[in-house]
Structure to design on (923 residues):
């Protein structure tokens, strides 16, 4: 016995070795000394030798069943091993032996709780609490059970009992405050949560719950509470603090701070679908980035396929991007999970209506009406259904009856909107004015409510539709007076001012963009304004901003392409228009504008392809396309196709004299003179004062080549000059007509009159130079040619000056002019021919032959050039000279000089038969 007691003392003072020796020796001396076994089992526990300790306890219980402490200790060992059943058995035996042991009841309740027997656990907690009221842990467990099962009244009573025992229990204050918040008793909840924070400043839950309550009434204090809570506990258990702080940042429009909080919540709990949805909403609201938002919504759906909110958000994002089919599928999934929500049916019906699937759309709207009984009973909802189904008369009738029963601003506004949909804008204005009367405060000193701004805005829209721009301007002014931050009102007022030709319309666009930098239409309208004012660079900058907002906008690329066209940046314009085509391959305007740019860049084949694409895309012939393509064909010399296009254009626009005039020009170029005259006649029937038509008809009549044609042509030129005495082309043509008639002085007078009107008229200067040359005034011809060349140098003018100088005997300068003409236009054959003649005259036959060869390389069917080359070859190359004479004879069989010269060559070669044959040809 003494050894046992000494061993127990050694254990208590920490001399474990001596304790082991004494206890083991005591058991050797007396193996039934149970106290020795008890103290030895305690030493085994210190060594973490639970099996040996359990053996000692079992020995004690086997030989003495009244040892409560042994049962309790053995229960503790089983509890540590996770064997709840054996622990409960031993705790129960301990309680039988000692019914007043509070701790045993508490621990057995914990084992019942571990095994899931909550009712038995609650009984033990109640007994423990009754035996020792100051042991608040038992009552806290009861309170937490009721808290988790939403038994709010019982939970409040339990936490109140705890606080009666311990007025400084922070957890009790925290959970009682949380219960009050759940019950909506926020005035009681806040003091409890404040007390929880006061008694335990490290209580993260109290800070979190108080932040939740203060989120609406005191957001900045709530933000502080959430932040402190996260500083104290940023683990997965406090993940909702990240969520609520992110939501609070969103409410405060601190988007860049909200996203990291939601991302932190996702890192802690990847199954938190609502965090993905919130990030997606920020991407849309702040950045208008629908692609990123859709990826977030998709992640939320992947985490929780039954999360209807994510499906609805993704459907709305798909709708904004124009991906209607994907949006319809998401609404279908939402309806499958929540078939009782009428709004989903309405939304899907609206999308089906946009796809022109009227039957399916009607089905969904009717289904929504049947699902919600209030939809059929409420006048507002009935009107919405009828309006959706385009039964505007029924919708208006329902709303008018509602206004008679209970007039309100909301119903009058809805009635006005319905009238707008029905295109009854005057009735809509009347309804909106009645809404304004209701919204106007009885005291004139009180400001109008913000809702009135929207009503004034709608009045302005209606006034614009009925082309009452002044009334629309007044309405938008009122809307802005009520709400100075109404961006849409500023934008619409700017458009109205532009219609009224006010100079300061662009200021409203700037104000609208200052309020709402995401207002896409304002950027485009400002670009159009700058384009109208010729400030193309600023217009392009506005288009750049619009494209940043909506990279898939065809209109923005069309606008920017048009502006770049005006600054002659055709290549950049083509890039923008190509981008527009890539976005919408059926946009005919993009193809048309790109064709115009290709036309300006001389890429004729590309322009023709784009014009052809426009013709294929549009069901009816496009007049502008036909005209532009016809002019392009004229420019590249394809007169036949140009003629066909202008014929088609004449059928589309039967009263357009310019098309008839161009048609006559095409016939004239094809040498169809009678058809050309007929086309000019048609143009003059449409517009008897069309000067160019008289001019063109005169040219066609002149080309008939007989005297009557010259007389009739001169008459048309005189008519043109009678209508427009300053018409230079008519005066020059009249001068040429007189020249043909041999009336050189009269022709010279007309050319001089044209030059007096416009001293830079090259055609008149050139014509007068020719007349001077014909009249023997070579110096006057030379002076006129010089004046013409000062205006602009062309190969024809240089060649003609060379001819004048040749007549003046200045062969050196003549050759220089011919060579300058060749350098300017290497394909101008007449300069080669004239240079060859000069060299021939100077007896420089080698150079002459070279120039005749080059002339014939460009125009091989010119009999004069062939004949002159033959004469040049006659000086030594008889064989090739004969060949050239024969070629000249083939080109012009009636030209006697060719036969004569060929005969000379044959005579030189003593081929007398050939001489006789050549000489006997008819002359």
């Amino acid at each position: 016995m003494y050894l046992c007691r000494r061993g127990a003392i050694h254990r208590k003072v920490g001399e474990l070795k001596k304790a082991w020796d004494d206890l083991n020796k005591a058991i050797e001396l007396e193996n039934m000394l149970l106290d020795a076994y008890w103290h030895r089992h305690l030493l085994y526990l210190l060594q973490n030798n639970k099996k040996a300790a359990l053996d000692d306890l079992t020995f004690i219980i086997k030989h003495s069943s009244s040892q409560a402490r042994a049962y309790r200790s053995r229960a503790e060992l089983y509890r540590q091993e996770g064997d709840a059943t054996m622990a409960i058995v031993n705790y129960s035996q301990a309680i039988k032996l000692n019914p007043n042991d509070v701790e045993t009841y508490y621990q057995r309740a914990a084992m019942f709780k571990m095994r899931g027997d909550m009712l038995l656990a609650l009984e033990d907690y109640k007994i423990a609490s009754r035996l020792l009221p100051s042991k608040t842990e038992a009552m806290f467990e009861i309170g937490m059970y009721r808290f988790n099962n939403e038994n709010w009244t019982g939970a409040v009573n339990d936490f109140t009992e705890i606080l009666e025992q311990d007025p400084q229990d922070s957890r009790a204050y925290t959970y009682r405050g949380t219960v009050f918040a759940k019950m909506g008793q926020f005035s009681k909840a806040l003091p409890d949560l404040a007390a929880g924070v006061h008694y335990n400043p490290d209580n993260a839950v109290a800070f979190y719950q108080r932040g939740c309550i203060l989120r609406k009434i005191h957001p900045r204090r709530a933000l502080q509470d959430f932040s402190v809570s996260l500083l104290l506990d940023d683990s997965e258990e406090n993940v909702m603090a990240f969520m609520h702080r992110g939501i609070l940042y969103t409410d405060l429009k601190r988007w860049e701070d909200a996203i990291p909080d939601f991302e932190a919540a996702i890192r802690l709990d990847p199954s938190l679908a609502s965090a993905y949805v919130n990030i997606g909403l920020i991407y849309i609201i702040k950045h208008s980035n629908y692609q990123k938002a859709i990826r977030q919504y998709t992640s939320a759906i992947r985490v929780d396929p039954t999360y209807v909110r994510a499906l609805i958000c993704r459907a709305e994002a798909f709708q904004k991007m124009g991906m209607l089919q994907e949006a319809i599928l998401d609404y279908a999934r939402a309806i499958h999970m929540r078939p009782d929500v009428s709004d989903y049916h309405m939304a899907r019906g609206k999308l089906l209506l946009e796809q022109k699937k009227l039957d399916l759309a009607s089905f969904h709207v009717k289904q929504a009406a049947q699902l919600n009984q209030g939809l059929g009973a409420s006048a507002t909802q009935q009107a919405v259904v009828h309006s959706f189904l385009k039964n505007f008369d029924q919708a208006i009738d329902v709303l008018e009856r509602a206004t008679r029963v209970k007039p309100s601003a909301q119903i009058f506004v809805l009635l006005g909107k319905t009238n707008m949909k029905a295109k009854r804008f005057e009735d809509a204005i009347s309804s909106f004015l009645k809404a304004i009367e209701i919204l106007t405060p009885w005291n004139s000193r009180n400001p109008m409510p913000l809702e009135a701004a929207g009503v004034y805005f709608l009045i302005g829209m209606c006034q614009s539709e009925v082309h009452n721009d002044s009334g629309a301007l007044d309405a938008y002014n009122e809307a802005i007076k009520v709400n100075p931050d109404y961006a849409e009102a500023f934008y619409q007022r700017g458009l109205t001012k532009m219609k009224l030709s006010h100079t300061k319309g662009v200021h409203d666009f700037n104000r609208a963009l200052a309020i709402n930098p995401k207002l896409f239409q304002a950027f485009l309208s400002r670009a159009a304004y700058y384009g109208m004012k010729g400030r193309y660079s600023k217009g392009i900058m506005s288009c750049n901003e619009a494209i940043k907002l909506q990279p898939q906008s065809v209109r923005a690329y069309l606008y920017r392409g048009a502006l770049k066209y005006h600054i002659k940046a055709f290549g950049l314009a083509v890039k923008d228009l190509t981008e527009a085509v890539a976005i919408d391959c059926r946009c005919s305007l993009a193809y048309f504008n790109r064709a115009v740019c290709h036309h300006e860049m001389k890429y004729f084949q590309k322009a023709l392809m784009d014009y052809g694409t426009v013709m294929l895309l549009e069901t009816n012939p496009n007049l502008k396309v036909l005209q532009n393509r016809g002019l392009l064909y004229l420019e590249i010399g394809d007169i036949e196709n140009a003629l066909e296009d202008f014929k088609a254009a004449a059928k589309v626009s039967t009263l357009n004299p310019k098309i008839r005039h161009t048609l006559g020009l095409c016939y004239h170029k094809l040498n169809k003179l009678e058809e050309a005259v007929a086309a000019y006649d048609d143009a003059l029937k449409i517009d008897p004062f069309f000067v160019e038509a008289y001019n063109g008809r005169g040219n066609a009549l002149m080309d008939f080549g007989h005297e009557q044609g010259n007389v009739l042509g001169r008459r048309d030129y005189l008519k043109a000059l009678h209508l427009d005495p300053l018409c230079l082309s008519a005066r020059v043509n009249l001068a040429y007509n007189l020249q043909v008639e041999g009336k050189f002085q009269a022709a010279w007078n007309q050319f001089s009159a044209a030059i007096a009107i416009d001293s830079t008229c090259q055609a008149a200067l050139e014509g007068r130079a020719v007349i001077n040359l014909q009249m023997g005034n070579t110096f006057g011809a030379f002076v006129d040619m010089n004046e013409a060349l000062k205006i602009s140098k062309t190969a024809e003018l240089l060649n003609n000056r060379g001819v004048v100088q040749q007549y003046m005997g200045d062969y050196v300068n003549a050759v220089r002019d011919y060579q300058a003409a060749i350098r300017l236009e290497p394909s101008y054959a007449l300069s080669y021919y004239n240079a060859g003649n000069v060299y021939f005259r100077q007896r420089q036959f080698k150079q002459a032959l070279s120039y005749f060869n080059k002339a014939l390389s460009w125009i091989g069917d010119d009999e004069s050039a062939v004949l002159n080359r033959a004469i040049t070859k006659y000086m030594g190359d008889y064989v090739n000279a004969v060949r050239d004479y024969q070629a000249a004879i083939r080109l012009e069989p009636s030209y006697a000089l060719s036969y004569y010269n060929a005969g000379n060559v044959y005579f030189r070669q003593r081929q007398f038969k050939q001489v006789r044959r050549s000489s006997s040809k008819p002359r």
Summary: The longest helix spans residues 707-723. The chain is about 80% helix and 0% strand. Confidence is low (pLDDT under 50) at residues 373-377, 912-920. The CA atoms of residues 264 and 836 lie 90 Å apart.
